[in-house]
Amino acid sequence: MGVTLSKGQKVDLTKSHPGLQNVVVGLGWDIGHHGSNFDLDASTFLLGQSGKVQSDQDFIFY
Fold first, then answer.
1. Which residues contact 53 (CB under 8 A, 6 or more apart)?
2. pLDDT score of 12
3. Rounded to a whole number, what is the distance in angstroms from the first to the last CA of the chain?
């Protein structure tokens, strides 16, 4: 199953697939041909059943 999101959109994978155990994430973007330098970052976090992050290990930044 593929999901395409735009800036600010979210997806709750547990509602759609309650037995989900693995997720593969790919990132892509088109900065156009503006001739400028860009610094692009991505981040994600894992929430426990409480709806909160359990530890610092649940944050991923690129």
1. 45, 46, 47, 59
2. 75
3. 24
Of 26, 60, 25, which Cα lies nearest the Cα of 43? 60
The single residue listed with the structure tokens 């759609």 is 16
Statement: the pTM of the whole predicted model exceeds 0.70: no
Residues of the chain with pLDDT under 70: 1-2, 33-36
Alpha-carbon distance of 62 to 42, in angstroms, equals 5
Integer Cα distance of 6 and 8 in angstroms: 6
Q: What's the rounded Cα separation, in Å, for the pair 20 and 44?
A: 17
Q: 33 and 18 in contact (C-beta within 8 Å)?
A: no
Q: Tokens for 36?
A: 């400028």
